[in-house]
Structure formats: structure tokens, C-alpha cells
Amino acid sequence: MEVTISLPEDISESLQGQWGNVSRHALETIAVEGYRTGALTETQVRRLLGLETRFEVHALLKEHKVPLHYTQADLEEDLASHRSLGILPG
């Protein structure tokens, strides 16, 4: 899907002065709000914004004061991974 937004020139200039890249800012806003409301997963946010790692997603979410969706199942999976890698004792 492609979304186009038409802005009056004065508004566009004001936003560019405040945000720089208005298109990127709008895309990040959609991604962050999508994650905050549960419409998007962390992986979808990463793909949408072309970020390389989940840590970049975490930084973006932190910047926007959006908590991570981290469940007990996520914790158990991370602990199991750490144990299999030898980071934590079995």
C-alpha cells in the first residue's frame, strides 16, 4: 500500500523545520503507534522502518516512551536460549 499526504507549503515547511524528513517522521509515527496499540509486532516495525536489529526497534520505542511487549513466554524463551548458549547455567 502506498499512502500520499498533501500538505500546504507553509505547513510542510514548518514541519520540515521541526522534524527534518517529514515522510520518515510520519512513517515512524505509524510504526510506533501500530506497535503501541498491538496492531504491529516488533518484527513488523523493524521491517517497515528498514531497521537492522531488534535493538534499533527497542531504542526507537524507548525514545517514544512505548514499553516493550514482553511476556512470560518471551522470558522463558530467552532464558532457554541463554542456557543453550552456555550464558546461564543449565
Give a written overview of the molecule.
- Helices cover 63% and strands 0% of the residues.
- The radius of gyration is 18 Å and the shape is elongated.
- The mean pLDDT is 94.
- The chain has five helices and no strands.
- It has one domain (9-84).
- It is mainly α and 90 residues long.
- The protein has helices spanning 9-19, 22-36, 42-49, 54-63, 72-84.
Q: What's the β-strand tally?
A: 0
The residue fraction in helices comes out at 55-70%
- Shape, please? elongated
Low-confidence region ranges: none
As a percent range, the share of strand residues is under 5%
Distance between the termini: 47 Å
Largest sheet: none
What is the residue-mean pLDDT, rounded to a whole number? 94
Number of contiguous helices = 5
* Spatial extent as radius of gyration: 18 Å
The overall number of domains is: 1
Order of helices and strands: HHHHH
Keywords:
mainly alpha; single chain; 63% helix; 90 residues
Brief digest:
By secondary structure, the chain is mainly α. The chain has five helices and no strands.
Topology:
Elements lengths: L8 H11 L2 H15 L5 H8 L4 H10 L8 H13 L6
